[in-house]
Design a protein that fits this description.
The protein is α/β, with parallel strands linked by helices. The protein has helices at residues 2-5, 39-56, 80-91, 150-156, 160-167, 178-182, 190-200, 216-223, 235-248, and strands at 11-16, 57-67, 70-71, 77-78, 94-102, 111-112, 120-121, 126-133, 170-172, 206-209, 227-230. It has one domain (2-244): 3-Layer(aba) Sandwich (Rossmann fold), CATH 3.40.50.150. It contains nine helices and eleven strands.
Length: 251
């Protein structure tokens, strides 16, 4: 779908959070895998999406994937992070960076045998952001920052806040509530996307999200002067995107 709509090698950045293998469908409108508990077939599907992302990205473009490992009772955890790393390296991406999104309060407290030892399970308070890069295909395409228009340079230059994000890759950002209030069960916070867009793009560049949900990635990209595109299967969530965009345009 994405590759039928968007041209190859034009996108500077992809920021996304896919449906997580191991997580049950939260409501009928939420599009997910045929069987989310089937680790291999769910990741086989995601791998095809990462392959399309690779084709859409320009040389040195970044793919940022928010995902984490899901506890699954007796079988242990679904190692989603390791599997996405393996699949993306397999496709040809380079793994450049890993940020930890520290979400703060957990939805579920410590469990298992707690307060007795040995069978305890930790609360889930963090997720990963894996930053992959498409390697240079043709050396003459390398971007020379000094050739970027001075106005774009001025609008995109990173400040002391970004210095802090790079000094400490544990990002303390509380979990987003707005998308949830509007009716999407799993959204990420604007600030998470804001950091990635500022770190990895100049203004006027393309930012894409193949699983846009309530529209967070596209909305933040547009707010920061980039060009945002998103894809979503659920009509209910597309309606939420439209509502959020209409509200954003008031400012
Ligand atoms: C984790 S949510 C993304 C939420 C988003 N980051 C936000 O802040 O609103 C994943 C989304 O992917 C959508 N989805 C699942 N399969 C899809 C597919 N094949 N194509 C497009 N969207 C899909 C789901 O309906 C869901 O809204």
């Amino acid at each position: 779908m994405m590759d039928a709509v968007l041209p190859r090698s034009k996108t500077a950045l992809i920021v996304t959070s896919p449906p997580y293998p191991g997580v049950d469908q939260p409501e009928p409108d939420y599009a997910t895998f045929v069987d989310p508990k089937d680790f291999n077939s769910s990741h086989d599907f995601l791998k095809e999406v990462w392959r399309v992302c690779y084709n859409l990205l320009e040389d040195l473009g970044r793919l940022c994937i928010n995902i984490y490992d899901i506890p699954s009772g007796a079988a242990g955890m679904y190692p989603n992070v390791a599997r996405v790393q393996r699949d993306c390296l397999d496709i040809g991406f380079v793994l450049r960076e890993e940020f930890i999104w520290a979400k703060g309060a957990s939805y579920s407290p410590p469990s298992g045998s707690f307060p007795m030892p040995k069978g305890v399970l930790a609360a889930n308070t963090f997720e990963m952001v894996l930053v992959f890069q498409k390697p240079l295909q043709f050396s003459q395409r390398r971007v020379d920052p000094s050739k970027i228009h001075p106005e774009v340079q001025a609008a995109s230059k990173l400040g002391s806040d970004a210095h802090g994000w790079l000094m400490d890759p544990v990002w303390h950002i509380s979990a987003e509530r707005e998308g949830r209030k509007l009716g999407h069960p799993f959204t990420y916070p604007d600030e998470l996307v804001e950091r990635l867009v500022k770190l990895y793009t100049y203004t006027n560049e393309w930012v894409v999200d193949p699983f846009v949900g309530s529209g967070t990635t596209a909305l933040v990209a547009e707010k920061l002067g980039r060009i945002g595109y998103g894809f979503e299967l659920s009509d209910k969530y597309i309606a939420i995107c439209e509502k959020r965009f209409a509200k954003g345009s008031l400012f």
